[in-house]
Write a structure and sequence with these properties.
Elements: E1 3-8, H1 20-25, H2 27-40, H3 44-50, H4 53-56, H5 59-77, E2 86-89, H6 93-100, H7 106-123, E3 129-135, H8 139-151, E4 156-163, E5 166-172, H9 173-181, E6 190-193, H10 206-217, E7 228-229, E8 236-237, H11 240-250, H12 257-266, E9 269-275, H13 280-288, E10 293-297, H14 301-311
Helix pairs in contact: 2-5, 2-7, 3-5, 5-6, 5-7, 7-10, 10-11
């Protein structure tokens, strides 16, 4: 029998009203929202359920909100008795994966990602850095183009290796614009500027990483009960102190999502279940391997079909 991985999305998947049905129907899910409100000292649950969308999109709100919704859905799904062989998350989603694997207590995680979002917003003033999704480019050629532009004085780096033909670059506004202008040199078709508040997963975020490191030192990291595939290495990690350091590195290092999925496939994983709104990650996985089974846990309604399909395996 094939293996299963639970995957958790990152910033960009958030939606007003996410996980509200789980909150209303499942006590374990409601408790997650209660803990989030209590630990953060404001009604995050109200922002998640009612918006406005503009406030939900602010990095310091998005990060705890998406973590809360994803873990509420995960807690509700636990009642099915289905357990994963591995967990993984994309950028912010790695924190959801760490909660699901027992490394971090949810209350600690929601506090950390609120601070992480604030540090990221503070580090680069709005408009001075950016990100763009490059479509169709060769990975090595795009890396070489980024090095060329950086050496010319405008820092830009690979930030998210998402799937074949989709790589996000990050850096100074000028660096990202230069990649967009010269994208065909790397075999790319076009570059799409992303609506983000900073150059995430680039070396411009090292100050934010240093601040996050101080925050993480005060938090207990337990050994993973389920192997967590780390963004920075695309390999499984178990030990708490190693996970803590990788979370610091993750702030300014590329997210190796394509590599992580490739490693999971090598281990015999054939079922990917995404927890949270939207279907960004299952969409990326499909572009990496069309043969795997993909499921989205984004509402209580989705539980029955997913459970039925998995039990029929």
């Amino acid at each position: 029998m094939g293996k299963t991985v639970f995957i958790f999305p990152g910033q960009g998947s958030q939606a007003v009203g996410m996980a509200k049905d789980a909150y209303e129907a499942i006590p374990a899910a409601k408790e997650i929202f209660r803990q989030a409100d209590e630990r953060l000292g404001f009604a995050l649950s109200t922002l998640i359920f009612e918006g406005p969308d503009t406030a939900l999109k602010q990095t310091s709100n998005t990060q705890p909100a998406l973590l809360t919704a994803s873990i509420a859905l995960h807690e509700a799904f636990k009642e099915t008795g289905i357990r994963p062989d591995y967990v993984a998350g994309h950028s912010l989603g790695e924190y959801s994966a760490l909660v699901a694997s027992g490394v971090l207590a949810f209350g600690d995680a929601v506090e950390i990602v609120r601070a992480r979002g604030e540090f990221m917003e503070q580090d680069i003033p709005d408009g001075q850095g950016g990100m763009a999704a490059v479509l169709g480019a060769d990975r090595e050629a795009l890396a070489a183009l980024c090095r060329d532009i950086t050496e010319a004085g405008h820092l830009v780096e690979l930030a998210n290796i998402n799937c074949p033909g989709q790589i996000v670059v990050s850096g100074t506004k000028e660096g990202v614009a230069a990649v967009a202008e010269r994208v065909k040199e790397a075999g790319g078709k076009r570059a799409i500027t992303l609506e983000v508040s900073g150059p995430f997963h680039s070396s411009l975020m090292k100050e934010a990483a240093t601040k996050l490191s101080g925050k993480l030192e005060a938090v207990t990291f337990l050994e993973a009960q389920v192997p967590v595939v780390a963004n920075v290495t695309a390999k499984p990690v178990h030990e708490g102190s190693e996970i803590r350091q990788l979370l610091v590195d993750q702030v300014y290092s590329p997210v190796l999502w394509e590599d992580s999925v490739a490693w999971l496939l090598e281990q015999g994983v054939d079922t990917f279940i995404e927890f949270g709104p939207g279907s960004v990650l299952t969409g990326l996985v499909k572009k990496i391997d069309k043969t795997v089974k993909l499921y989205n846990i984004n509402s209580l309604e989705s539980f029955a079909s997913v459970t039925e399909a998995l039990e029929a395996r």
